Amino acid sequence: MKILVTGGAGYIGSIAVEKLIEAGDEVVVFDNLYQGHREAVHPDAIFVQGDLADKTAVDAVMRTHQPDGIMHFASYTLVGESVQKPFMYLRDNVVNGANLLESAVAHGVHRFILSSTANLFDDPERMPIDENERIVPGSPYGESKFIMERLLYWMERLYGMRYACLRYFNACGATAERGEDHDPETHLIPLVLQVALGQREKIVIFGDDYNTPDGTCVRDYIHVADLAEAHILAMRALDQGSRKYNLGNGRGFSVKQVIETAREVTGHPIPAVIGPRRPGDPDVLIASSETINHDLGWQPKYPDLRAIIETAWAWHVKHPHGYGKD
Ligand code: UFG
After folding, report:
1. pLDDT tens digits for 79-101?
2. Active-site residues: which are they?
3. What's residue 326's pLDDT?
4. Which ligand 1 atom minimizes the distance to the CA of 117?
């Protein structure tokens, strides 16, 4: 298939591109490079620099390349930032997302995969969280993804669009060639590894008074290559119907467990101090991915936190300052 990948120069998007190309698909990347890196784009992908806010540019890429399907990764993704800048999130994730949908419909592209989020589930009634959990977006970011999920529902009813919403829990890890390079970095695993690289003095644990066994937040860490695989399986299955899947490992690890595992992997003591809670962090978020396992046979190849951190560490050692800065 020929797949248009928005955000294909970003962390998760670039690894999905790598896996699509390995699977024999043709890929067109559309990315404004605000957060992504040109160096992250697989050399066999066609790269178009452009912004989803620019409807003419979006229409041009659809007309020129006529993709069979779209994987839509491009968006802002930080829960905390979205509370500070709600309109930036609504404009970029929703208004620009609607540009992409409108253009897809106009050009007869009827397969769409949305990067959605565990932030749809701010107040879960059951753990692990399955697809029947009630949706309570935890931030303007989560809300922006929920609105996109709802728009896709209408795209299917009105125009026959087939779609999959993939709700990621905590994406992490790296392939040999591609990894996590955000500026500024806010995610736990790369920050911990920056301490091990000597680029930071210590890691601050955001609160140790949560309702969890060691008092620190528990999250479900899922390897980006496993996420990429889920996208490919979901795209191939769309002709049998639209779907929504929660994507995680089904196991939770606390912030302290992540730091301890990183100490074992890196051999560095990684000093840690307890700081205040970060607003908006729930105690525990763990996914049930039984539905995608049942429907598509998807299973994580990296269920083990240590193996995930090893892949991230290998990439950080090779690219201590990220893409294009070595
Ligand atoms: N944490 C620390 N110290 C840090 C950074 C993070 O203690 O310096 C903690 C956080 O409080 C949280 C855990 O580590 O408990 C993981 O935090 P991340 O920032 O790595 O990831 P988040 O869980 O906040 O967010 C991720 C994605 C979001 C997505 C969310 C869904 O970045 O896009 O998971 O749960 F919405």
Report:
1. 999 999 999 999 999 999 999 99
2. 141
3. 56
4. 36
Residue 112 and residue 105: Cα distance in Å, rounded? 10
Alpha carbon of 294 to ligand 1 centroid (Å): 28
170 C-beta closer than 6 A to ligand 1: yes
| Local structure of residue 121 (DSSP, 8 states) | B
64-67 long-range contacts, Cβ below 8 Å, gap at least 24?
Answer: 65/2, 65/4, 65/28, 66/2, 66/107, 66/109, 67/2, 67/3, 67/4, 67/28, 67/109
Distance CA 2, CA 28 (A): 8
20 lines ligand 1 (CB under 6 A): no
Ligand 1 atom nearest to CA at 216: 15
- Give me the domains of the chain, ranges plus CATH numbers: 2-172+222-247 (3.40.50.720), 188-219+251-318 (3.90.25.10)
- Counting Cα atoms < 13 Å in the Cβ hemisphere of 27 gives 30
Ligand 1, atom 14: closest residue by C-alpha: 188
